[in-house]
Amino acid sequence: MQEQHRTVSRRQTIIGTICGIGAAICYGTNPLGAQLYKEGMTPSSVLFWRFGLAWLIIAIVMLFRKESLRVSAKEFGVVTALGLLFMASSLTLYMSFSMMDVGVASTILFVYPVMTAAIMSLFFKEKLTMVTVASIVLSFVGVMLLYWRGNGVTLSTLGVILVLLSALTYSVYIIVVDRSKIQMSSFKINFYVLIYCTLGNVAYSLCMGQPIAMPATASSWFYVGWLAVVPAIMALVMMVYAAKYIGSTPTAIMGALEPLTAVLIGIFLFGESFTARLAVGILLIFSSVILIVIRNHKPKQ
Fold first, then answer.
1. Contact (CB, 8 A) for 257 and 24
2. How far apart are alpha carbons 65 and 293 in whole angstroms?
3. pLDDT digit string (tens) for 7-38?
4. Which residues contact 180 (CB under 8 A, 6 or more apart)?
5. pLDDT value at position 56?
6. pLDDT tens digits, one per residue of 221-267
7. Is pTM beyond 0.90 here?
8. Where are the domains of the chain?
9. Closest CA relative to residue 181, chosen from 236, 248, 235
């Protein structure tokens, strides 16, 4: 049924695969935003500046592209759903960063490919192939190896719940992009998505009595700029193309590269050790992505 849902060329499949990998790597740099907590910024403040700056950049791009902002009633409903879903996913994830190690949070977040595959199978009758199951198992085991310490430390229950909510809303976000058949450019979709994300964080801040704090140092502006460009604009734009061209489940499974990115950031930027466990975990994750790539490039019968 998934093959019947879309007809894409080999070129689009290649583009979708590259975008899926790129989106996962870009989104995997999200934990860098936790550095802003050290400067006294709250999750809602971090996300306000991240999404607000990203929206401004996309608005400028659309101005140069001379792209119309007009949307139909159906398109308005879709972008509204996408905006609320992504805002909820981002806010719950960043809230969890203040309750547990960002690496652990990123690891738990990776259950979203499993959620995506389950939702697609239960509600959209997508066939759960052996390749898909094998990819999920390999990537999940790989992620567990990346962060498992075996020291019996108990995680924050609320933090875990928040990450799981983030994973669920992100998986639904991917599915809505995939199934809505919305005929809008990726920039236009994210123009509206980022409006909802920005205003949503303002509303949350007002409700919680937490004023929006402005970045106070050059380093904090650097991190805000990074969050706006890389895990917001670049990840969102590429994720839209990936979901459209290769589907929800493959796009989600390629998200295995997100925690891998977090590990590499820890090794090269923060001097964390590279162990045999990390090596095996990385190998398993790459194997899961390669399986998906091979599956997507097999000729359709």
1. yes
2. 32
3. 568 888 899 999 999 999 998 898 888 888 88
4. 78
5. 95
6. 999 999 999 998 899 889 888 888 888 778 888 877 888 888 787 77
7. no
8. 12-297
9. 248
